[in-house]
User: Fold these one by one.
Assistant:
Number 1:
Amino acid sequence: MSDTDTLRKKIIEALQHIYDPELPLNIYDLGLIYKIDIDEEKNVRIEMTLTSPNCPVADSMPSEVGEKVAAVESVKSAYVDLVWDPPFTKEMMSEEARLLLGIF
């Protein structure tokens, strides 16, 4: 496993400790993380969305994600880009998340 793969795994683990305030699911399994890019210098760029533009944590969630990712060992910096395209749908959720919520 490469250093980048190992770092990506650590970042995903950190993201799995951030929960949506309205659902009992972490943002990674919920499907809110669209992309994790890591450059050669270990700068990380996260592309994410929220379940709705009217989400009550729209202002705070991206900064929380950035802080948690920046705190991962070996990460030099973290930048979070909040996007609305493609729009979030339940199909983006992990199978485990859909089962937990009773969505089949």
Number 2:
Amino acid sequence: MSFNISDYDYQLPKELIAFYPAKKGESRLLVVDREKKDFYEKKFSDIVDIIPEESLLVRNVTKVAKARIFGRKESGGKVEFLILDPFSEGDRFKSLIKSRKRLVEKEKVFIDENNYIEVLKKEGGEYTIKIPFEDKEYFFEKYGHVPLPPYIKREDKDEDCKNYQTCYAKMIGSSAAPTAGLHFTEKIFKSLEKKGIRIVDVILHIGLGTFQPVKVDDIRNHKMHSEYIQIDDDVVKLLNSYKKNNRKIVAVGTTSLRTLETSFTGEMFLPKKGFTDIFIYPPYKIKSTDILITNFHLPKSTLLMLVSAFAGRELILKSYNFAIEKKFRFFSYGDAMVIV
């Protein structure tokens, strides 16, 4: 078993990076069969036929905040903030900052003529900042931009407010979207329920843990940042019932899977309200989940390592090469994959 970062690399033509989404529910779907070591193409709406009857579908109901904030230093220099924990209480937040020159402690960055963000301190690559409003929902709505990933090389547009949000988002707190959920529509959920599939909600507020790149050659040396998760008693009760009766548990996205795997002891699920820094990579055996709905992930990313643990690295890389050959659309606004 190799733990070298180069084992999770692949070459993606730039034109396959999706800058805009397909219409919800109408993206392409790559089905990866772990048992048969095979893969084939369907439409995302076919997910209703693919998921077995009497399965339990688990989705992450985190809501993306407009966590990207632009401002100017007193000297006039441009500053960009990406707030990593928009769910935090109070007026202090963790943030990544882009600026031509490093910001110093107590420096002010003006977001309009009268209001400014204060930089309190820096630890590692993260800053602690103070925002000027008690009402954070107002702050994000007034000054924030949709935090599109950096590989989507365009400014955010009004339609991104809807497109970069799942149709079932409930609790604001993420600085990135749980992108597997972007493919779903209310119509698809109704069709699933009609088939006898139960749907339950968990929370993982997406921050640096999910999208931070791996910068070490040996992946075992990568440190995951903590992200807030919540899985409630009633959800755990259903999960344990399905597990006991050998019914399928389906995770919508890697964040739902990481929440489930954090909750699962190996024998049963436990309620959880706190933080997880679980890092899943081969040869880790995922025991909480039977089916994973996901997107295509960046080369050398922790998410590519997670799906490799779920389906096997060779099968995943073969399926990715097939998707490239067939010109699937990649990453957050791209096409979908289901691993069965």
Number 3:
Amino acid sequence: MSRKGPRRPGWARQVLLVAKKDLLIEVATGEIVTTAGFFAVLVAVISSLSFFAGKDSMRDVAPGVIWVSIAFASVLALSRTWQRERDENAIRGLLVAPLSRSAIFVGKALGVGAFVTVVELIVVPVTAVLFRIDLTSFGPLLMALLFTATPGIAASGTLFGAMTIRTRARDLVLATVMLPLLSPSILAGVAGTRALFLGATAGELGDYFALLGMFGFIFVAGGLGLFESVVDG
């Protein structure tokens, strides 16, 4: 009788295994959330001191501070996430494992999305204190805007982080590529947040949610289609 080898886990299980690996490493070290969160808070504090505009600061300055802080912190988090895969050539072990490339992409993106979400949960209360934002009124819709943008940030960062893994000037290339790609999401987020602070309702913010969702869908679909050729190239 022939023996059957160990069964390959299903696709969803593969995704969870990759995401779990990154999350367990982060729980043990805390380096990504700590450094990215501290950097985002520092950007928010410096911006609040540099661009204070009196009672209009919440409307004119706070939306940009929130989204720019998260954008730069996300690039920092993405850089460190892929640095782990470069150390000791760990990416090779990940690629030779019985995992589909799409599962690796989605698992890595889920891990990055979790890191970005934690940074968002840190930045929003800090910015609310600095700019006197009433989170009881604006908090739910503001977090909804941020969470809608998170899949696009995580997916694009995962794809282009993989592209730069074999590049010498990795961090510079990642920031140079990522920030222009994220600019449509950031602009939509800033405009939507400003409209929210001016009193827009959830229905009136529908176009901004649609734009952020569309960007996220494009980046996720593009990552699923291109990730294999990127990491195997």
